[in-house]
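Continuing from yesterday's entry. The apo prediction looked reasonable, so today I'm repeating it with magnesium ion included to see how the binding region is handled. Same sequence as before; SMILES copied from the compound registry.
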Amino acid sequence: MAGISSGTLPPLLEASVTLDELYEHFDRLRPLRRRAASAILENGLDLDAHHACHRAPVCGETLSTLEETLHAIDSLPGSGSSREIEIDGRSLTVNLEYERTELQRDIACLRLGMKGVVQTLHVPGAFEQELDDVLELIHDRRYTCVFSDRDGTIANYSGRYRSSHQPLYAAVRLGRFAMTATDHFFVLTSGPLYGHGLLSLSAFPEGTVHLAGSKGREFVRSDGTAGSFPLREEERLLIMKLDERLRALLERPDYSLLASIGSGYQQKLGQLTVSIQDIHRSVPSEISESFLDEITTILRQIDPDRSRFELDHTGFDVELTLASDVDRARGYHKGDGVNYLIEACGLDLGEGPVLVCGDTPSDLPMLEALAQRGVETHAVFVAPDADLRARVQQASSAAAFCTGPDVLVTALGIAGQAMSVPT
Ligand SMILES: [Mg+2]
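Holo prediction written out below.
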């Protein structure tokens, strides 16, 4: 089944692949997904009503490549989503559920329209009820701005950040909302923007959304203009020193696996993140624990009084963030990011409302920063947790909740489509 396709098509996966080859293959699918999403929006196709967009040449080409990829993955040794992949010369069983599921949904989208996608969506709660709850808040409403987290909010969690590419049906849903229901749509993630970061993982059609990485410290706007929060020289040196030590640690054979699973190792502006576990719990706990001990030791040497870095352990990742300029007792957070983006992009939010979407407590500072500026906020949080829901309700003027990104993405798409129909 080996072969090289011509033109822009990515080469097919071989019968045996390394994890890097798989990543590179998905990287090459991204522009195809993006072109198809752009064509759907440019042609004003309503995929809730329109079922045959694969007849458009760009969409047809994307469809056959996605189908070939799914077939190639399903031909790897293993069964279902568990497939054998080579990592560091060893053959390991890897869970490819995210990659397979989103491929299947994109194929359904191009073949059958959103009707085909909706049949495959699932969340822990009651999908229809949650969809109604979210739509009741956002339907028929125009927002001066949207700030949305990515992972767990408008994207399903992937076992590996490196291949958490955005599916095209979600790019269409979200891109349409960005075009019709708001002046500015920021995707604000703690992940990196450049390298194998947000830019290279997104299929958003050109000109629709602004992408902000490193908790908002760096951004690329929908018109291509870019900016970043300046680091002081001493801060840059500290990050470099920490980066050197972490990379040396990850080169040790007992820890090299950690660079390949979950978030992997991410060098962001003002922050370094390294995975010590993934959602499939593929790392033995003693390795996670001893790696965390090593990091703590390094931090004690580089930042003895712990005034420069905040260490946050999220369960899967360890995040090492430079302290905030606003409050040296804490790390830079997404509220600082929102304030920076408003100033750097010269946004006039008026009185709002501004829509904030998130799924963890680390997204709350976005709401708090806007409230401090006197801006009305609406919040949609993907949050099964009652404590987090209570905190969201306290911090925003109005809120709706759901239990999975699939609900929020669907709701934003439906609301965006409704706004695009002249009344
Ligand atoms: Mg998240």
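Comparison notes:
- The mean pLDDT is 91.
- The chain has two domains: 1-120, 126-423.
Will overlay with the apo model tomorrow.
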